[in-house]
Amino acid sequence: MSSGIVSTRDFQVGIKQAWHGQTRVAETLTAADFPAIERVPLTYSLPSGEVRWQGMTVPISTDDGLPVGTASADSYTLFSPKDAMVYLQEVLAGTQYTIESLGMIFGRSRWFVTFDLSELAGICPAGEAFKLGASGGLDKSFSPMIGLSHHTQVCANTVALARAGRALFCSKLTKGFSARLQASRSALGEVVGMARVFNESLRSMEAKPASVDEARNAYAADLSGNGADLKSSRASNLIDELIVGFRQGRGNAGATRLDVLNGYTEVFGSGLVGASSKRDAFSRWQSSEFGGFADRKEGFAAALTDEGGWSRVQKEGNAALAEARAGALAAI
Question: Which residues does 303 contact at the CB level (< 8 Å), separation at least 6?
């Protein structure tokens, strides 16, 4: 496992000791824990003396005067870790958070910081927490990225894990970087707010019981609302599969409204464990995340969580099933 702390200049500051044992533990972390980074002219030596390379600069740490990245043209934007801290604290104004870890690695050419969004702690699943992480490089090979994850960045590996998810903001440090960063400000604030709203909804559903019959009604309402013929074997088999998801899907116990939602998203997403499908796994995942099934999952979740939504889908599903049963009897 690589920490990225490869020189005496590299460091990680945190509220507790990390796995690598090189954490400088502090009760409170601030932007002052990062050294100031400035750009200075790039020069080279000739027998006649020192000459400046016109239009080129190199970033240095002001605490030791040594480089922390590669040379770049004047048009290249410098976005230092202190800049990132100021920006994120402005975005999170009014939100409860703790700066959990920060540092610079690989000769200070890369930096990272993790904010624990303590305001969301009460609505996270057991053992999980929301972390707003930012990381970037001063050597042009590591674009600044900001994203939500469950990982605290303390080393090169955990930075890679945090950056593996979907980024809320990522941009190269080209001329338009500052404008793109400012344009993302409101979007980032909204995402943090929506994380609270969405997870409050999930935790609320987790606390509300649901029976097999109620799950069947919810699934029937969705299928009939999307044009399925509930008298057909295909629809009947799909409802049975959804009930299996409700009862036995990953992490489900067949007991709550959240199990109803999870069973649905699992069947229409990656599929139940051991379920057979004529479609390859990648095609199924692609459809569930980006295609028609993505819209179906979003619509089903909205139907269950909207005000009065649960009662509405129960009424619609029960009526649809009754009509299907009547039609089946009439056909005998």
Answer: 218, 221, 222, 309, 312, 313
Residue 48: how many CA atoms within 13 Å on its side-chain side? 2
Residues of the chain with pLDDT > 90: what percent?
Answer: 38
In contact, 265 and 252? CB cutoff 8 Å:
no
Q: Do 157 and 246 reside in the same domain of the chain?
A: no
Bridge partners for 25 per DSSP: 14
Q: What is the residue-averaged pLDDT of the chain?
A: 81
Spatial separation of the C-alpha atoms in residues 68 and 15, rounded to whole Å = 25
pTM over the 0.90 mark: no
Same domain flag for 89 and 161:
yes
Say if CB 20 and CB 155 are below 8 A apart.
Answer: yes
Same domain, 146 and 61: yes
Q: What is the span of the domain harbouring residue 37?
A: 11-197
Q: Does 241 fall in a domain?
A: yes
Residue 2 included in any domain: no
- Tell me the pLDDT tens digit for each residue of 133-161: 899 998 777 888 888 777 899 999 999 88
- Burial class, 37, CB count within 10 angstroms (exposed 0-12 / middle 13-18 / buried 19+): buried
* Model confidence band, residue 166 (pLDDT cutoffs 50, 70, 90): low
